[in-house]
Inverse folding.
């Protein structure tokens, strides 16, 4: 048997080796046109080698540094390698992928530079982990194609740019904090801190000192000054979740911070400036609490300058397939698995579930399924036990408003299920205009 | 009167709008080009780039790669976009002025090579 050594490595062997590694690798000539593009490069960029070869590398990779500080050009100019430079590339579907790039020059036998080689590693999994730890979510992390969420996307940049207080109302697990972080990261305060406080998680006596801080000697155990969340959020944003649970006394202090832009730490003789933007969140309708006299109307007016109403997952059912793909991708990366998704029957059961815990519950269900599943595809038996029951009740006839009404609804749901809730494909199959389909979906509570 | 903007890099349409530093602004009146301007922006954020385009009262943007956020910001600002275009800027502009550039996003997914 002949052996392959560095000296007798043929181009075929080199190609096989380069195609077998997980990092994207491409080479360019001295005019920056791609001469080789391996399989991992295709997987990461979504561009096939035959489409990439011959093109300018900056038009295929679309890295954030291509037009400013191209790593390959730096290597050409200095003759030195660049190792693990962190950038992001823009895939042809509009998604940005974090990568680390390394570059080196290619020389001929005489030492003349004839081109360069660049390798790049997909850092998506690492980046996701980092985001989970550091909570640096942007509004591109919000997964949706639902019309109500898309409308929010349209106004989000303008909301972020303003300094106004924002009130986010939505049920538990609907993504209130994600929206708040996205607003902060899109605002002029993005380099300042984002401080989150759950007003419902602390007893009122503690909450006041937690929000506004205290000075030494304010009470028996106050051995030294302690800054509150308002102070910690200086120059940034404070996110107050479950603001509906504030006591009347704390409501007054919060109102002052909003009105006068200053607050007084416990035991302090002077006020401190409140250089923060407030984003409040609630799952209750605050106007009802005002009617019941448990929430101050003047505080509501101050908080409710801009209001975002987040729908429950049941109200944005068309997002379920998209969210399922997102979480499957996430857990595949996190758990190093290769699950392709859910089988059709299980997906139908998921689509009909009411999700009282919203997106958080969907994520938990998928995590549970990942733990239970040892196959390529998630089946009903991998879901929590209550879903088996749900699948059994699903086949029982439901009391319909009228047979026609029920049959039209069922036809639409079946077609939506077949097409992964893609409205365009469903409308085509049912020979309906998109708008008519949407109207019918709305009528049957499916939109 | 309408203003067309193209982000430029080394004579070609810049491969991504959010990183572009040079823009060609072309003003048209009665179908004829009456003004051409090259503008350099240095290290602007995507939001600043969109703000610049809105400030220049751009009606149409012909560009390369577009992030979802930029797409939303432009749509929100009422700027019509022909994205994912690749090629020589002058050739692209000539094609557009001759009405030979498709006016919708038909090439998303692969990029559309012109020259």
């Amino acid at each position: 048997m002949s052996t392959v050594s560095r000296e007798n490595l043929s181009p075929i062997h080199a190609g096989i080796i380069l195609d077998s590694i997980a990092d994207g690798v491409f080479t360019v000539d001295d005019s920056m046109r791609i001469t080789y593009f391996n399989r991992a490069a295709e997987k990461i960029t979504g561009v096939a080698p035959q489409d990439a070869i011959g093109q300018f590398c900056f038009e295929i990779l679309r890295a954030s540094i291509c037009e400013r500080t191209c790593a390959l050009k730096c290597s050409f100019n200095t003759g030195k390698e660049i190792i693990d430079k962190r950038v992001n590339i823009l895939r042809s579907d509009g998604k940005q992928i974090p990568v680390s790039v390394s570059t080196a020059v290619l020389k001929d036998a005489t030492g003349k530079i004839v081109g360069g080689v660049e390798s790049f590693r997909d850092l998506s999994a690492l980046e996701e982990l980092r985001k989970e730890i550091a909570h640096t979510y942007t509004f591109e992390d919000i997964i949706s194609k639902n019309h109500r969420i898309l409308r929010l996307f349209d106004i989000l940049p303008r909301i972020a740019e303003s300094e106004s207080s924002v009130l986010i109302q939505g049920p538990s697990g609907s993504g209130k904090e994600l929206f708040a972080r996205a607003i902060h990261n899109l605002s002029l305060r993005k380099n300042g801190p984002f401080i989150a406080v759950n007003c419902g998680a602390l007893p009122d006596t503690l909450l006041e000192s937690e929000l506004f801080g205290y000075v030494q000697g304010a009470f028996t155990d106050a051995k030294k000054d302690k800054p509150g969340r308002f102070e910690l959020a200086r120059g940034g944003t404070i996110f107050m979740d479950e603001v509906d649970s504030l006591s009347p006394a704390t409501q007054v202090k919060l109102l002052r911070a909003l009105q006068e832009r200053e607050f007084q730490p416990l035991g302090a003789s002077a006020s401190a400036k409140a250089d923060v933007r407030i984003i409040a969140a609630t799952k209750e309708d605050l106007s009802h609490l005002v009617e019941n006299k448990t929430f101050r109307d003047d505080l509501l007016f101050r908080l409710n300058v801009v209001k975002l109403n987040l729908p429950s997952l049941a109200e944005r059912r068309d997002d379920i397939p998209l969210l399922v793909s997102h979480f499957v991708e996430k857990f595949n990366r996190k758990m190093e698995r290769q699950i392709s998704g859910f089988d059709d029957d299980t997906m139908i059961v998921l689509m009909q579930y009411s999700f009282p815990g919203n997106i958080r519950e969907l994520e938990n269900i998928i995590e549970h399924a990942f733990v239970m599943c040892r196959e390529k595809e998630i089946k009903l038996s991998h879901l929590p036990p209550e879903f088996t029951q749900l699948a059994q009740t699903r086949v029982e006839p439901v009391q319909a408003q009228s047979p026609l009404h029920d049959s039209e609804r069922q036809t639409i749901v079946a077609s939506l299920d077949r097409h992964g809730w893609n409205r365009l494909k469903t409308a085509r199959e049912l020979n309906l205009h998109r708008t008519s389909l949407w109207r019918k979906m709305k009528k049957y509570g499916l939109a | 009167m309408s203003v067309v903007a193209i982000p430029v890099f080394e004579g070609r349409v810049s491969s991504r709008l959010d990183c572009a530093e040079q823009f060609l602004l072309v003003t048209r009146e009665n179908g004829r080009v009456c003004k051409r301007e090259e503008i350099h922006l240095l290290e602007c954020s995507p939001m600043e780039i969109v703000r610049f385009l809105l400030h220049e009262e751009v009606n149409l943007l012909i560009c390369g790669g577009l992030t979802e956020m930029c797409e939303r910001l432009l749509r929100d600002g009422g700027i019509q976009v022909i994205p994912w275009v690749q090629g020589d800027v002058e050739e692209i502009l000539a094609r557009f002025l001759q009405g030979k550039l498709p006016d919708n996003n038909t090439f998303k997914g692969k990029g559309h090579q012109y020259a």
The two ends of chain A are 66 Å apart (CA to CA).
